[in-house]
Amino acid sequence: MEPKQKVEKNAKVDKLFADSPRVLSLHQRFLKLFEEDLSETQVLSFTETDLTLMSVFFMRIVSVASADPNVGDFYGVSLDHREICKPRSRVQGDVP
């Protein structure tokens, strides 16, 4: 059994936003890698379809267009942003 480690918040996540240079560069690097070396690899991507409660209102955190990498299969999942991308526990290995 592996020791449990605290999952730390990554400060770089705060810099992720639609059409940010960092996100666009990462996506272009992914597409290049896929085309050159991974074209036989199956890619499955998911997006949340439910709105996320933020304080007192509901909002969409990631647009469907932004979530779709345009490679492989793409599915909408009936979850909000927290449910689809946040860990259930802040302790690594603490989820069944």
UniProtKB/TrEMBL annotation:
Keywords: Endoplasmic reticulum, Membrane, Mitochondrion
Main localization category: endoplasmic reticulum
Any one GO cellular component localisation term in the record: mitochondrion
Domain of life assignment: Eukaryota
Keyword Secreted attributed: no
Compartments reported by the entry: Endoplasmic reticulum; Membrane; Mitochondrion
The keyword Mitochondrion appears for this protein: yes
Protein known as: Uncharacterized protein
Species: Ladona fulva (Scarce chaser dragonfly)
